[in-house]
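Lab notebook, bench 4. Still working through the backlog of constructs that have no structural model yet. Next entry is a single chain of 289 residues. Request: give me the structure tokens for it.
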Amino acid sequence: MTEGPLAILGPGTLGLSLAQWAAECGLETRLLGRDQLHAEAGRQTIQHRWDQAVAKGRLSPEARREAEDRLTARAFAREALEGLSALLEALPEDPASKGPALAAAAGWGAPELLLLSGTSSLPISGLAQAAGLSNRLMGFHLFVPVPRMAVVEMGVAPGTPEPLVARTRALGHALRKRVVQVRDQPGFAAARMALAQGLEAMRLLEDGVATAEDLDALMTLGYGHPVGPLELSDRIGLDLRLRIAEGLAEAGEVRFLPPGILVSKTGEGSLGLKSGSGFFQWDPQGRRS
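Model written out:
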């Protein structure tokens, strides 16, 4: 990929992981936050991760310096979009925040700016319509941690021009990912498959079929999954899982009706790793305790 810099809007879990990896892959990368302090705090988090990687021998000091030189932090504003080739929105899974941000980016950026959403569940066509970006927005669902996950799910809405698809695919390859193109729909493909398994595991737990530990062991030890569906749900966040399930169920897909245990845990504030408890207990370092 020989185009200009990539901007990542939102220094959250996805945004930080992608910004780190993009810089390591040789891309000029701009991390955009709600203000300069917000963006700079994200850049410092990435620098700390690089320090740890060097200390553990996973990254050479020279490679770290080169990656750091490629990463800048700026407030999300018109001047921050000058000269950009692509912008990926990595905001929370809420159309109310994503839509206005994408509309602003389209207004501030050049007409040829490639606009991407990192959503894992919201239909691209709906986001595009809300932001006034008909046939201009692409889905670019990366998996966290981005440096370790070797695939990106590219959601393509009907009517999207082929040159945009080709540019998005080229970006995926520049990030050293296998690009899987899927038809635009709620949940794309990956989230739907993972959610279906997670919801079934919750129903089995709710019915007392086995413990959470044993249900996950069947999938990790029996099928070779790196983590079980209940631990994965904790890592993703039970509130996000519930939102996606409710959205699909409201669209008429009754198989995604959320189990009572998911509704109750979310209502209690047991959201998984980020709250310290979900189907499992988690320590402040993100390890099961």
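Notes after review: The two ends are 43 Å apart (CA to CA). Strands lie at 6-9, 29-33, 71-75, 86-89, 114-117, 137-142, 151-156, 178-183. Flag for follow-up if needed.
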